[in-house]
Amino acid sequence: MPAERTVLGVIHNVTSATRLLDVLSVFEGDPRVRVVFTCTGSSVFEDGIPEFISAHGLFFLPWESALAEEFDLAVSTSRGGNLEDISAPLIGTAHGAGYNKRLSRNPESGIRNPESGAGGRGGVEAGPAAFGLSPEWLLHEGTVVPSAVVLSHDEQRSRLARDCPEALPYAHVVGDPCADQLEASAPFRTEYRAALGVRPEQKLLLITSTWSEHSLLGSAVDFVERALAELPCDEFRVVAAVHPNAWYAHGGFQIRRWLERARRAGLILPEPAGDTWKAAICAADAFVGDHGSLSLYAAARGLPGLLAAFDEDTVAPDSPMAWLGGLLPRADPGRPLAGQLASAVTAPDAAARITSCPGRSLALLRALCYRHLGLPEPPFPVLPRPVAVPAGPAAERSPLRPALYVDTRVRGGEVRVRRYPAELQGRTAGQLGAEVHVLADAAEPDTRLRGLADVLVARPGGDPAEVFARNPGCAVVVARPRRLVLRGGREFAAPAGVDPELAASALLALLGEGRDPQAGVTLRAGGATSALRLTLPGDALPGDGRPGGASGQPDAGLLGTDAAQ
After folding, report:
1. 378: cis peptide before it, omega within 30°?
2. How many CB atoms lie within 10 A of CB 483?
3. For the purposes of burial, counting CB atoms within 10 Å of the CB of 57, is it exposed (0-12), middle (13-18) or buried (19 or more)?
């Protein structure tokens, strides 16, 4: 197709590439403009770029080839590399929620130094100016490199005037395309939650981590397991959004292995190259983050939040991130997390600190780009579009249900059930009540957990008698379709519409209290309530319906000694 203009998209790493595609959406639907891509080779986080290019079908030119050609416009979402060598007017934008971090160059390599910051970490001391607003990143031999310095907020103009006044004539405040897309996506919260596997009655906790050893994962990686361990899994889901720099610096394999126990316990861990993190922000009910941009975006959506890490040395002192860091409370490892989330703080002014042009970013960006191209804009509007619905939770899903610690409380006519991943309870088991039992798969490979289980779930077609024979501590076997089989042979049937595993835990609690399971109770689990009335199947043992005989008291022969105790 014969294009009239060619635009060069400049990639530094996957982080900048994802924002670059957001910005370049201003050319959608215009056959007059062709976009090609190159990579500066200046980032220490280059892993993942070939896969990103292939996944998105980008026409790619090696850096040396790109420098040998002339283009009508170049767009970059980072400042690294020899951008002054590009033969085209250059539009430079941020790749996060504005300009919030202080980063410097390593004079020996000429690349971004991921360890630099106040105090000289990495051998280079960064000044107070933010990355992207300082002479170090905007000037080459005293000349401003970008033809346009794109800002998202008016306050950035003030910082630019202070730190690099030479670049002020080239500044354009156009807002934040990501913030606008999140706003456009907000009405589709229900669809995003469903795609992430979050039930209507559940809350979704978003954990966000930027990169470096001072990030949440770098300095408090055990927080992820702690969240899964402490929050009842019927009431909460947890999603972790990991910065692409961290993901590709170690490799996705390694990140997944480090978080494998949490993944088995239900952690949603999307790959960072897509937009699932945006859907997760729209779907979430609260967040725990650090000094990364996702904390600002989550706060701007009105989510209450905590900070599990915050590197004050890296954050520019007069930036929106510094403001957020002074506002949000820090996660306290010595206090129950659920209580901290209940009192987490919202930041009502966050959205107004991210963008000065809400809803208009793409329109202003398009006008800026087409002025530089010398073309009239297309006759149709450019608007922020909702984020695509994620394909769903991870395709790799173990057929093994995770073992659970089940906390049951019988109060009057109600049984409340809260369940927690058993594998992660090393630190928090003491926080659970004494009325706790273990539920596990009959094929659970951890013999310790299977041996502790009072409730075992038989495999499809499995014989409860065999399960009891192999597991002498088991009191109840859940068998398909809704059979609840007690040691000794007595059976009950869970009502339709009630999770048989929840019903089994409630049955065990009722028997322990000497209550009649057929009398009917209210079952409360995960924020939902249901009527629970267990029935006897047609081949039930004779009796009055009360386990343990006419007295209604459980007996050790029926439940097993451990269960009766």
Report:
1. no
2. 17
3. exposed
DSSP 296: H
Q: What's CA 378's distance to the chain center, in Å? A: 37
For residue 328, give both structure tokens.
Answer: 């949000």
Q: Two tokens at 236?
A: 């909460």
8 A C-beta contact, residue 159 and residue 101: no
Residue position matching structure tokens 């989550």? 298
Q: How far apart are CA 307 and CA 297, in angstroms?
A: 14
Helix (H) or strand (E) holding 219: helix 216-220
* Cross-strand partners of 531: 522
Q: Which two tokens stand for residue 511?
A: 């028997």
Neighbouring CB atoms inside 10 A of 160's CB total 24
Paired sense of beta strands 483-486 and 491-493, if any:
antiparallel
Q: What is the pLDDT of residue 398?
A: 81
CA distance 325 to 548: 59
C-alpha distances (whole Å) from 280 to each of 254, 284, 285, 534 are: 22, 6, 10, 38
Kind and range of the H or E element at 160?
A: helix 154-163
- Angle 293-300/320-327 helices, nearest 10 degrees? 70
The answer to whether 150 touches 174, Cβ cutoff 8 Å, is yes
How far apart, in whole angstroms, are the C-alpha atoms of residue 425 and residue 428? 5
The model's pTM is 0.88
Q: How far apart are CA 377 and CA 11, in angstroms?
A: 25
Provide the percentage of residues in the chain whose pLDDT is more than 70: 88
How far apart, in whole angstroms, are the C-alpha atoms of residue 366 and residue 383? 10
Nearest C-alpha neighbor of 232 from the set 80, 433, 41 = 433
Smallest CA-to-CA distance from 109 within 46, 47, 42, 49 is with 42
In total, the chain counts a number of residues equal to 565
Strand order in the sheet with 483-486: 491-493, 483-486, 476-479, 453-457, 436-441, 404-411, 414-421, 521-525, 528-532
State residue 432's pLDDT score.
54
CA angle 143, 146, 148 (to 5 degrees): 125
Label the pairing between strands 436-441 and 414-421.
unpaired
Encoding tokens for residue 147?
């033809």
Answer yes or no: are the C-beta atoms of 384 and 492 closer than 8 Å: no
Which two tokens mark 439? Answer: 């539920």
d(CA 271, CA 52): 11
Q: 494-528 burial, b for 16+ CB within 10 Å, e for fewer?
A: bbeebbbbbbbbbbbbbbbeebebeeebebbbbee
CA distance 51 to 13: 11
Which residues contact residue 335 at a Cβ distance below 8 angstroms, ignoring those fewer than 6 apart?
none
In this prediction, the residues of the chain whose per-residue pLDDT falls under 50 are: 106-126, 394-395, 427-429, 539-565
Closest CA to 306 of 271, 275, 331: 331
Tell how strand 521-525 and strand 528-532 pair up.
antiparallel
What's the pLDDT at 113? 46
Half-sphere exposure of 88 (CA within 13 A, CB side): 25
What gap in Å lies between CA 459 and CA 452, rounded to an integer? 18
Residues near 379 by beta carbon (within 8 Å), at least 6 away in sequence: none
Q: Rounded to an integer, what is the distance from CA 323 to the centroid of its chain?
A: 23
